[in-house]
Write a structure and sequence with these properties.
Number of strands of chain A: 2
Radius of gyration of chain B: 23 Å
Largest sheet of chain B: 2 strands, antiparallel
Strand content of chain B: under 5%
Largest interface: A-B, 81 and 89 residues
Order of helices and strands of chain B: HHEEHHHHHHHHHHHHHHHHHHHH
Shape of chain B: globular
Largest sheet of chain A: 2 strands, antiparallel
Structural class of chain B: mainly alpha
Number of domains of chain B: 1
Radius of gyration of chain A: 29 Å
Strand order of the largest sheet of chain A: 1-2
Structural class of chain A: mainly alpha
Number of helices of chain A: 30
Oligomer: heterodimer
Strand content of chain A: under 5%
Helix content of chain B: over 70%
Number of strands of chain B: 2
Number of helices of chain B: 22
């Protein structure tokens, strides 16, 4: 059990070490150190898991205390860990997926001038996330909760020179704070009612589900307030608005934080307080409805997005909705099951998307991709697994977890449950549709990135485009002469890059990094780094990135304009091995991840494992007959297959289907627009009014009126005498006079 | 007799000021050495006091009591307890930083002299246990601050200094009248006493109206100093126009004189009135927290923005005080220290930016994270502390305040909690505008923090992280005194609603040690003692 300390200390140590020595270590050592810390943490989590497994089911809850944090009177909040099936499950998948994404980032962030800083934040993120899930009390969890929010903010705005990332990061933090407001009020209510913030003190007495152990109104209040927090962190309606924007961050961040781990924190929180939710049936209904509504809503938007990452972002929101639907149906282990499989396949899809973006030198517009399966076989094949998994195709992981949730929805909330199921069912079809559309646009069909290439423009175009303010930061083309460079054709296409005077391990595009490093450096600066033919590659990349800024809307880089002109090759290339390896592992997990919770006999391992946390007394299995379950599953599978076909066919034929991409969906139902318009319009005007009319005019005016008179007197007195002594004496004299008056009056009376 | 450490704490900087004053004008280097050496010695002395301070004791320690003007019952009475301990320490630590850190524009000799005199006044205010002495010290701080702003400040300094002076002096008039009134009204048989404990024992003899009127007089004086909405408008001007060192001291120490005064002289002397009128102050605090944040968001001058953030933060402190729970008041006291560290650090950072760029206009600063990454990182940490990120100091204080308030005054806490959203809005937005983007021109050429600047930020950063991660030693020293204060309030007002859960031993304190409530067996306090025993803590279902 003491290994549990190591889970937490490794990323913390990594963070501190990198904070101090990160710059000295540089690339890639800093990345390896961070990855090692994450991996060690994973190993410790595995050890903890097995030692917990070695205990009997009712002894699988251990509290490990570290030290006292905030002790005031009856409030005792410690830094303590609670190891139980739920927290250890979370720790396992967080560190597992986290380690893979750390590794991936070494490849992806290659050449970035702030490479060490990226890993500082990544390790801090991992540490915070582990605090969140391992904490034994609400406040320590809240520390992790805010910590991941901070890392998210910093990592979204990682490329702070650009225009949009800082705004997106700020938006994420502030929107999350709206949710945190709910979290805090929930915590206050809990303390007010229970007199403690420890999970053990609060939840254990409720575990038996004794009727009346908690008043419904209290439970509902706590549950809804905490759910507000969860809706912020897990991007549910109406607080989801930050997540699509969060895609401005580097892609590994999107995969780790904004798909696999942090955004599931809300689901974890709701699962953690399951005993309270048991006493708040209305809150469960609200959670289920919000979850279902978000799932459908976000899925419709995902159908009309062109940005490869935006599709995945809306898809994530939609899938999180599923998880909340599961929680709301009282099927906690189903919700968590989907959280885990989703972590596998969505991280896989994001990393695949990252690999594509990387391979195409910053292209994110799917309409300018196509035909990549030939060029990126590993990425393609793993992406296909992710696609089938998220679409709920038998026997991939998503099939199992999605079905669990849909069946639970059917069996819960009476008639409403059928509606919830129908919404989830429809969403499943849409999911298959938009993912197929993505696969069709990105990997199949014809190669549109070739059509738009203008090699002739390459050199000069690059030079012109590399405007100083648009300095390049996206990790640069990695021409990687690495071992995993599998396709011969390709490897042949890049010798120049490989030889380009990059002493560090065959990383051919180093010169690109060099350029990026020079503040405001124009593209012309690159030859300094590129001693060979590789030099030509650099300006091209700068140009590509430059256009990233120029572009507006969801579509970003106009890749064809500039990116094609790598001197050696504008062709997409497969990812280097640190990026390919995580793809393969996650691909395997996404394919077979379903085995952790199969719906037969004794194979529902996850549900059994989590049983002590969600005993039947508080989380009764929604009752659905096996035959019904099977029918529902077959229906859903049929719909998903239909969605698959509908997604592939039109988009393989042509990329222009305006009828399938109505403006309403392309613009995400204008919800974000409306909010921005309000905040930037009347909201700001009101604040401005407060600041300059009310404060300056009314309040300061009023006091200045009085003060003005006094000041006048003061100035006059200052003229008479040297200054302060005078004023001071005035005060004293006045006081003395009053004193005298009083004594006289009192003496007289 | 023990070494009179508290008296020394007051006289050391005062003597230092005198020493600096007599150094000839031509030898300003000597003045500098003396000034800074005295400030450092003061800090060391304060640390000694901290080490010797007995944990777990509620009453005043290191008490020094000498007759001064016996005819009027005025004495030289000093003491320190958990409430004032860390304010004294904060003062002693922040002065040398403010004196040695930022560049002084103008004559350093007089500057340092005024600073030391100011320090003596501030320390004296926190230590005084005599109403006359307190008033003297409280007013003493005014004069050096006035000269620091008007002499070493920026363009609009004369207006700002005068505004500061007039505002506070107007407030002080109420304080003086209040002090005299309470002393005379509580005099027994023509025997006057300005002694804090004596007066506290007797205030329950006053009529309800008298208590309320005098309490309000005190509160007006302290509310101006704090500043509490709507008496805050002197603050943005004074902060903005003051030299960096002045702003640091103003934010870190001078504002705390107000909140400390509320606690020590408002609530302690008039507990019943404080409970009765609490809702008014809670409301003003909550308005300040939200309104201050909204106004801060719209500021175009970075320093002014931070000044308004003080209005919001001090609202938190006042909120905690009038919650009358252990968590609320302890959080409020801790937040006084926290605000001193983080806002002091923010003003130092803005000062550094101004030194380099000669502007504080947010619109003229851009992309600084690129040109000065270390300063940006430090700013980020301090900002997050101010935003209340858990793991840094601000969170602990804010959380305790809000939690403590929620228990007794739920809706004020709910509205106040929106302050955590708003703090993120104005600070992150400012950070984005100042530090993000690509710097051009002057912004691109800016130099990063020097060794000396790093050295002066280091203790503040250390405090910010330490108090965020391990506030226990501090809370352990604050809480006993706070609990006794609450017990004292409860004695005065047995009907005071005290929650049954989570407040722990607070309600279990049976004796009013600080004022020895039982000994002056007036009717009021007698009935207070006879009040039903407080509900024991705990009682979890």
């Amino acid at each position: 059990m003491n290994a549990s300390y190591i889970i937490l200390t490794m990323p913390l140590a990594g963070f501190l070490a990198l904070l101090i020595f990160g710059r000295k270590l540089g690339e890639p050592a800093a990345g390896w150190l961070a990855t090692a810390a994450a991996a060690a943490s994973f190993v410790a989590a595995v050890v903890t898991f097995f030692s917990l497994l070695g205990r009997s089911a009712d002894e699988r809850s251990v509290i490990k205390s570290i030290f006292a944090w905030v002790p005031v009177a009856g409030l005792h909040v410690d830094f303590s860990l609670q190891l139980d099936p739920l927290s250890v499950t979370m720790a396992l998948f967080v560190t597992g997926v986290g380690s893979l994404i750390h590794l991936y980032s070494i490849g992806y962030m290659h050449g970035d001038e702030r490479f060490p800083r990226f890993f500082v934040l990544l390790n801090l993120f991992l540490f915070s996330m582990l605090c969140l899930v391992l904490a034994d009390n609400f406040l320590f969890s809240f520390l992790g909760w805010e910590g991941v929010g901070f890392c998210s903010y910093q990592l979204i705005s990682f490329w702070f020179e650009r225009e949009r990332p800082p705004a997106a990061g700020k938006k994420a933090f502030v929107t999350n704070r709206v949710g945190d407001f709910g979290f805090m009020i929930g915590v206050f209510l809990i303390f007010d009612h229970f007199g403690s913030l420890n999970y053990h003190d609060v939840l254990t007495p409720l575990m038996h589900g004794t009727p009346g152990a908690l008043a419904t109104v209290t439970a509902t209040g706590i549950a809804l307030m905490l759910f507000l927090g969860a809706a912020g962190k897990s991007a549910q309606l109406p607080l989801y608005i930050w997540l699509p924007d969060a895609m401005e961050g580097p892609t590994p961040v999107s995969a780790l934080i904004h798909a696999a781990t942090m955004v599931t924190a809300g689901v974890y929180l709701m699962a953690r307080v399951a005993p309270i939710l048991h006493y708040a049936p209305d809150a469960l209904t609200v959670i289920a409805i919000v979850g279902a509504a978000t799932a459908l809503y976000a899925a419709t938007i995902a159908c009309a997005q062109d940005d490869i990452k935006k599709v995945l972002a809306y898809s994530t929101i939609s899938q999180l909705g599923y998880m909340f639907l599961g929680i709301g149906a009282g099927a906690y282990s189903a919700g968590l099951f989907h959280m885990i499989t989703h972590a596998f396949f969505k991280a896989l899809l994001f990393l695949g998307a990252g690999s594509v973006i990387h391979g195409l030198h910053e292209q994110q517009d799917m309409k300018k991709m196509g035909g990549l399966k030939k060029w990126m076989p590993i990425t393609f094949s793993t992406f296909i697994i992710g696609w089938l998994a998220i679409s709920g195709i038998f026997p991939f992981s998503g099939f199992w977890s999605k079905d669990d949730i849909l069946a639970a929805a059917w069996g819960s909330h009476g008639q409403l449950g059928k509606v919830l199921w129908a919404v989830g069912f429809l969403t499943a079809g849409l999911t298959a549709y938009y993912m197929s559309r993505q696969v069709a646009l990105v990997f199949l069909g014809e190669a549109r990135w070739k059509d738009t290439r203008h090699p002739a423009e390459a050199e000069e175009g690059a030079g012109l485009q590399g405007k100083p303010e648009l300095t390049q930061h996206e990790p640069v083309a990695q021409s990687s002469g690495d071992a995993t460079q599998v396709e011969g054709a390709h490897a042949g296409a890049q010798p120049a890059g490989g030889g380009a005077g990059a002493p560090g391990g065959g990383a051919g595009a180093q010169p690109g990094g060099g350029t990026a490093g020079a503040p405001g450096g124009s593209a012309g600066a690159q030859p300094a780094g590129g001693s060979g033919g590789g030099g030509g590659a650099t300006p091209a990349m700068v140009g590509a990135s430059a256009s990233t800024h120029a572009a507006v809307g969801t579509a970003t880089a106009d890749h064809g304009e500039h990116a094609g002109h790598d001197a050696h090759s504008g062709d997409p290339h497969e990812a280097p091995w640190p990026m390919a390896f995580p793809l393969l592992v996650l691909g395997a997990l996404a394919a077979i991840g379903g085995v952790i919770n199969l719906p037969w006999g004794k194979w529902d391992l996850l549900s059994r494992w989590l049983e002590p946390v969600f005993p039947a007394a508080i989380a009764p299995e929604p009752h659905v007959a096996t035959a019904v379950k099977l029918t529902l599953a077959l229906l859903t599978l049929a719909l998903c297959l239909g969605g698959l076909a509908l997604g592939l066919l039109p988009w393989l034929r042509s990329i222009y289907h305006p009828e399938l991409e109505p403006g309403l969906l392309k613009n995400a139902w204008y919800f974000d627009h409306a909010i921005s318009a309000f905040v930037g319009g009347p909201g700001e005007e009101l604040a401005d009014f407060a600041a300059y009319k009310v404060d300056k005019g009314v309040i300061d005016g009023a006091v200045n009126g009085i003060a003005g008179l006094t000041a006048l007197g003061g100035r006059w007195l200052r003229k008479l005498q040297t200054g302060y002594v005078r004023n001071y004496a005035l005060g004293l004299a006045g006081g003395a006079a009053l004193l005298l008056l009083y004594v006289t009056v009192r003496g007289g009376g | 007799m023990d070494f009179p450490i508290l008296t020394t704490l007051i006289f050391l900087p005062a003597a230092g000021a005198a020493a600096v004053a007599v150094v000839p004008k031509t030898r300003e280097d000597i003045a500098k050495v003396i000034g800074i050496a005295v400030a450092v010695a003061e800090a060391v002395l304060a640390i000694f006091m901290l080490v010797d301070f007995k944990v777990g004791e509620a009453g005043f320690q290191f008490v020094s009591h000498q007759d001064w003007i016996p005819d009027f019952g005025i004495s030289w009475h000093l003491g320190v307890d958990g409430i004032s301990l860390f304010l004294v320490l904060l003062t002693a630590v922040i002065f040398p930083i403010a004196m040695a850190g930022p560049k002084i524009h103008g004559q350093p000799k007089a500057f340092l002299g005024w600073m030391l005199l100011l320090e003596a006044g501030c320390i004296g205010t926190f230590l005084a246990m005599d109403l006359f002495l307190f008033f003297l010290m409280f007013e003493l701080t005014l004069v050096p601050m006035y000269f620091l702003i008007s002499g070493w400040g920026y363009a609009n300094r004369v207006y700002a200094a005068l505004k500061f002076f007039i505002f506070t002096l107007a407030g002080s008039a109420f304080l003086l009248v209040g002090i005299l009134a309470v002393v005379f009204l509580t005099s027994s048989g023509g025997h006057l006493s300005f002694d804090l404990i004596d007066v506290a024992r007797r205030t329950s003899q006053l009529t309800q109206t008298e208590q309320r009127l005098i309490f309000m007089g005190f509160i007006i004086a302290f509310a101006v100093k704090t500043p509490l909405f709507p008496l805050h408008t002197w603050l943005p001007d004074a902060h903005t126009e003051a030299p960096t060192a002045g702003s640091v001291i103003l934010a870190a120490v001078l504002l705390k004189l107000g909140t400390y005064g509320i606690l020590r002289f408002g609530v302690f002397l008039f507990p019943k009135a404080a409970v009765d009128l609490g809702p008014i102050l809670l409301t003003a605090a909550v308005i300040g927290m939200t309104y201050g944040a909204i106004v801060a968001a719209m500021q175009k001058d970075l320093k002014r923005l931070i000044a308004y953030s003080s209005v919001a933060h001090l609202g938190f402190i006042v909120l905690g005080i009038f919650a009358f729970t252990s968590q609320g008041i302890s959080g409020g006291v801790l937040q006084m220290v926290n605000h001193g560290l983080s806002t002091g650090a923010l003003f130092l950072l803005v000062g550094m930016i101004y030194e380099r760029r000669h502007t504080r206009q947010i619109s003229e600063l851009h992309g600084l994270q690129k040109s000065v990454p270390i300063m940006a990182a430090v700013f980020l940490v301090v900002m997050m502390s101010s935003v209340g990120l858990p793991g840094l100091n601000g969170f602990v204080g804010e959380f305790l305040v809000l939690l403590g308030t929620f228990i007794t005054h739920r809706w004020w806490a709910v509205v106040g909690s929106t302050g955590v959203i708003l703090a993120a809005v104005y600070l992150l937005w400012a950070y984005q505008r100042v530090f993000h983007g690509v710097p051009e021109g002057e912004n691109a050429k800016m130099l990063d923090m020097t060794l000396r600047e790093k050295a002066m930020m280091a203790p503040l950063l250390l405090g910010i992280v330490f108090l965020g991660v391990y506030p226990k030693p501090v809370l352990d020293r604050i809480q006993p005194s706070v609990d006794h204060l609450i017990a004292h309030v409860q004695h005065a007002d047995p009907s005071l609603h005290l929650p049954t859960k989570g407040v722990g031993p607070v309600v279990a304190v049976g004796r009013d040690d600080n004022v020895d409530g039982g000994s002056t067996a007036s009717v009021t306090s007698g009935s207070a003692n006879a009040a039903p025993a407080p509900v024991p803590a705990g009682g979890t279902p």
